Amino acid sequence: MRRFLIGILLLAATTVSAGAAAYTYVDLVKKLTDLEGLAVLPPIGEKCQQASSYDRASKYDPQTDKYTEWGANNDCCGFIREENGKQVWAEIEGPGVIWRIWSAWADMGRVQIYLDGASEPTIDLPFIGYFDRNNEPFIYPSLVHNASGGQNCYVPIPFQKSCKIVAEPNWGQYYHFTYTTYPKDTKLPTFTRSLSTEEKTALAAVDKFLSTKLGTDPAGKREGEKTIAKRISVPAGRRITAAKIEGSGAITAIRVKLNPKAIGDASKTLREVILQISWDGEKEPSVRTPLGDFFGTAPGINEHKSLTCGMSKNGECYSFWYMPFSKSAVVELINDGKKDFPLEINITHAPLTKQVSELGRFHCKWHRDAFLHTEPGREIDWPMLKTDGRGRYCGVMLSVWNPQGGWWGEGDEKFFVDGEKFPSTFGTGSEDYFGYAWCSPALFQNAFHNQTISEGNKGCVSVNRWHITDNIPFQKSIECDIEKYAVGVDNPCKYAATAFFYLAPGQTDPYSTTPSVEERTSYYKLRTIKRVPNAIEAETAKVLSAAQGTTPAVQQMYEWDAEGNLWSGEAQIWWAWPKLGDKLSFALPVKKNGKYELKVQMTKAGDYGIVQIWLDDKKIGSPIDLYNPGVVPTGEISLGKVNLSAGQHKITFEVVGKNEASAAYVIGIDYIKLEAAK
Asked: Among 241, 257, 440, 673, which one is most buried in terms of CB atoms within 10 A?
């Protein structure tokens, strides 16, 4: 008997008639970790779309076949229409499931979701209530989380007939609701916040896996699986076959162990070595990508764990994409570098559990600037993936080289499915698509999205997004664009994308050549960000509490300090817009009992307030006036000497006033530091 992880991790559907399927809520929860299900070719009638606050000034005119205001950027608050004093965000015909909700600033205005024609909302919460983990069933940390300012909710919300989403004023800024609709004969439950014990158990089990077991195959050990294990040195300028598997089956895991010392400069060599996989004797490989990029990050070795792939600091890499084949699979490594490349590789494969005719072939392709748009009005759209065929788009790793600094990620994602002229997915910003917000450089790890590199947004950035439940099915074609504002001869910002997708057997993608090794390695370099030794960076400190209606966000400071000499880490916490008396508290960890001098560095500007600092609910030091006509840090300020016990303490910043000349009460915090004192 095949072993199922926690009894719930593989997709099960009950066929009720030919071509029809019925899913329970537990079945839908299983989809959150079902990588095998991504390979199943989509039926006609399945479609994933997104309702968002994108700027409605962006339009397509079918009469003239032209796009107008296509780069419009007031994406904070678009909606369909006003109705009874509320904004209508979405009207969806079922059956369907909302898979993902995101916001950059969810506030206290209520967002109501009406399902299946009900006169009363099924969900009626302040928008922040979808994300603060205070309301059942939106309480599971791996499914409901804040990622560097982005608020994310992955709890499934199914409906059979219809879904309508409306919002009261003061709901905040920016929203995404990503949803899939299914063939009309599909049977789905109508969501309720009062889940059964079985349904709660399913959510809790998935949450536990995503919180504690990333790096292991969510399907567990498969019946009949085998592993090919090899220790290889790929000669410079040569190609070798790592595995050749005959018959039908599926590659279920690829693990690579690197020796960081032996492979040299990983930021270069992991781009020089190509992973190539061919299915069923095809002439053109379906997988062809730099080795490092295949594991979700580049350049170099960068620690992260997600559901599909990951990498450790010591060079242990994994991938659990499900890769079926009917006749054969050939895995090759190509070294375009000038030195031999040693590694250990384990390739696990197992018998198929579904009819091979149901399954697509896994594709993964890396490119820079392939298929750029030339039609007038669409120059801003940068294609991450463009292909004909039938299949599913399942995610992307985007590698950005931004040497001049300035915010690179203002552009919206736009997905055109099956020849659409106007995209059925239209986003609100690049960092929003990747699940974070407010240009934050802070690294984060989650099952479905990660920021693995950010050199203060100046230099290299690497982000990924995995579409597991919210994969994008297509029958004829798909084009996945992301707007690129940083263009022109005066802006050397460059993008490289690794797209992960499935196509039906026998179909090929158009990425038929591999960019040269020079193209893969010569356009970027890693840089060092200066940080004050032993400082607690405010932008990565744990926020314990913030006044209602305020949003502490990470702000890049390189625009004011190109050399990185003023702000530690070239970033600060920017607290906007607090009112008089508002407080913001951070965790202050102390390693051992002792006497310390407590210091802070903050920022001064023309709209900054006066702040009083508290330590464990006791005032410490005098109020600090942060007003200055220019933007400058204060320099280190000593708040005096304190006796602290080992453990977590609390440091609080309270707005107590503002200079007469200041325009507001904004607070900027660079770092907090504890120095041993006598």
From this structure: 440
Identify the pLDDT of residue 375. Answer: 87
Q: Rounded to an integer, what distance in angstroms lies between the CA atom of residue 411 and that of residue 429?
A: 5
| Contact criterion met (CB below 8 Å) for 4 and 223 | no
- Rounded Cα distance between 605 and 627, Å, is 5
User: Token pair for residue 109?
Assistant: 């205005």
Both tokens of 394, joined, read 């399942």
- What is the pTM for the complete model shown? 0.85
- The residue count of the chain comes to 678
Cα–Cα distance for residue pair 455/462, rounded to 1 Å: 10
- In the prediction, which pLDDT does 1 show? 35
* Chain centroid to CA 597: 39
CB 4 within 8 Å of CB 29: no
Say how many Å lie between the first and final Cα of the chain, rounded: 66
pLDDT the model gives residue 338: 96
Alpha-carbon span 635 to 521, nearest angstrom? 39
CB-based contact 474:424 (threshold 8 Å): no
Spatial CA neighbour of 656 closest among 667, 644, 643? 667
Q: How far apart are CA 35 and CA 675, in angstroms?
A: 48
Give bridge partners of residue 497 from the DSSP assignment.
Answer: 367, 398
Q: What is the C-alpha radius of gyration for the chain, rounded to an integer number of angstroms? A: 26
Specify the pLDDT at position 113. 98
Whole-number Å distance between alpha carbons of 665 and 315: 46
Residues of the chain with pLDDT under 50: 1-18
DSSP string of 241-270? EEEEEESSEEEEEEEEE--TTTT--HHHHH
What distance in Å separates the CA atoms of residue 38 and residue 19, rounded to the nearest whole number?
18
Nearest to 223 by CA among 118, 348, 359: 348
Q: How much is the pLDDT for 404?
A: 84
Pairwise CA distance, residues 308 & 219, whole Å:
12
**Which residues, listed in sequence order, are joined to residue 229 by a DSSP beta bridge?**
346
Angle, CA 402 vertex, CA 398 and CA 408 arms, to 5°:
70
The residues pairing with 668 across neighbouring beta strands, listed in sequence order, are 574
- Please spell the DSSP secondary structure of 497-534, one letter per residue: EEEEEEE-TT---S--SPPPHHHHHTT---------TT
Phi-psi region at 203: left, alpha or beta (left = phi > 0; alpha = psi -120 to 50): alpha
Q: Which two tokens stand for residue 673?
A: 């530091």
Separation of CA 321 from chain center? 17
Kind of pairing between the strands at 287-290 and 361-367: parallel
Task: Look at the block and give the residue holding tokens 């910002």.
Answer: 493
Instruction: State how far Cα 386 lies from the chain centre.
Output: 20
**Closest residue by Cα to residue 107 from 132, 128, 138:** 128
Compute CA 190 distance to the chain's CA centroid, rounded to the nearest angstrom.
Answer: 28
| Interval 396-436: pLDDT, tens | 999 999 998 888 999 999 999 999 999 999 999 999 999 99
Give dist(CA 252, CA 475) in Å, integer: 25
Tokens of 649: 């303490």
Give the torsion through C-alpha atoms of 546, 547, 549, 551, to 10 deg. -30
Residues with Cβ within 8 Å of residue 281, at least 6 apart in sequence? 327, 328
The helix/strand/coil state of 482 is: strand
For residue 191, what pLDDT is reported? 98
CA distance 264 to 234: 14
Q: How far apart are CA 53 and CA 111, in angstroms?
A: 14
SS3 content of the chain, % helix, strand, coil (to 5): 10, 45, 45
Look up residue 27 and give its two tokens.
């079945």
Per the CB < 8 A criterion, the answer to whether 400 and 411 are in contact is no
pLDDT of residue 529: 81
CB-based contact 161:95 (threshold 8 Å): yes
